[in-house]
Amino acid sequence: MRDSFSSFHPLVNFVYYAAVLACSMLFMHPVLQIISLASAAIYSVTLQGMKAIRFQLLYMLPLLLFMAVLNPAFHHAGVTILFYLKSGNPVTLESVLFGAAAACMFITVILWFSCYNAVMTSDKFIYLFGKILPSLSLVFSMTLRFVPRYTAQIRAISRAQRCIGRDATQGSLAMRARNGLTVLSVMATWALENAIETADSMKSRGYGLPNRTSFSIYRFDNRDKAVLSIMTGFIAIVAIGAVMGQAAMRFFPSLKMVEMSPFSIVVYAAYFVLCMLPVIINLAEGLKWKFIESRM
């Protein structure tokens, strides 16, 4: 499925992810955590399809359950005792819920970062911070590319070595070790040569010079202004609610949270719309295209 939110200006994308990641890491309120987790899971599926579903079911769900169970086994604070372990340590309701909240926060941040990597490409990051922090933005951008690029290169080297019978999976144990070292040696040589070529290329293009100009395909148009204004409004509502204690949650020594009120419902609704904003934009664009096709 085409992601319409990715076509917005990099500033809009970055502000969105900065807001949802900050809220996901700071808010321990169960309503806000459920909203953030559900929104991240839905948007991840929108971006990556079945791959995201497999990742969530095979890795994220077991990790969520494991972390939720692990905390009460070692953390025994709280006044509501559920039962005792064989070691004599109590398992409390507060520690169980705190473990579930911490696990939910951890999984939510991972899902949001997976969406961030799919939308905020290296060229967008360099566009935003290249003039402010040219060296740091370049290093960060290159770091994000290292793992997928080096993984693809080492696979290509392994396939080439396999064609001449010198792959790490062929021959005796000593031969496999020798072949594996050969693959790593070739990989290290390629990495060093690639680093030198990249440095020479960036230097010849004048990267980092004060008067250097750069080409950009990004334009901050009226659509970006409208979405950024709406997003800023929802962020302001959520921030005001957090300052007034609507996102607070106490786990120890006993559970305590703010009572539901009309203002808290407004804050929860604003946070829901903020987290689901990319999905809403995608749905709106899909309906728009269907309407245009029906008129043709």
Outline the secondary-structure elements.
Elements: H1 10-26, H2 30-48, H3 50-74, E1 81-84, E2 90-92, H4 93-119, H5 122-129, H6 134-163, H7 173-204, H8 222-243, E3 249-250, E4 256-257, H9 262-275, H10 277-295
Antiparallel strand pairs: 1-2, 3-4
Helix pairs in contact: 1-4, 1-8, 2-3, 2-4, 2-9, 3-4, 5-6, 6-7, 8-9
Search tags:
296 residues, mainly alpha, 2 domains, two-stranded antiparallel sheet, two-stranded antiparallel ribbon, 10 helices, 4 strands, 72% helix, 4% strand
Please provide a brief summary of the model.
With 296 residues, this protein is mainly alpha-helical. The protein is 72% helix and 4% strand. The chain contains 10 helices and 4 strands.
Strand arrangement, major sheet: 1-2
Secondary structure tally: strands: 4
* SSE string: HHHEEHHHHHEEHH
Shape: globular
Radius of gyration: 25 Å
Number of helices, counting only DSSP H or I runs of 4 residues or more: 10
Structural class: mainly alpha
Uncertain runs are none
Structural domains: how many: 2
The first-to-last residue Cα distance is 22 Å
Question: Would you mind describing this structure in some detail?
Answer:
This protein has 296 residues and is mainly alpha-helical. The protein folds into two domains: 4-125 and 222-295, no CATH class; 132-204, no CATH class. It is built from ten helices and four strands, in the order αααββαααααββαα. The protein has helices spanning 10-26, 30-48, 50-74, 93-119, 122-129, 134-163, 173-204, 222-243, 262-275, 277-295; strands at residues 81-84, 90-92, 249-250, 256-257. The strands form two sheets. It has a two-stranded antiparallel sheet with strand order 1-2. A two-stranded antiparallel sheet has the order 3-4. The radius of gyration is 25 Å and the shape is globular. The two termini are 22 Å apart. The model has no long low-confidence stretch (mean pLDDT 84).
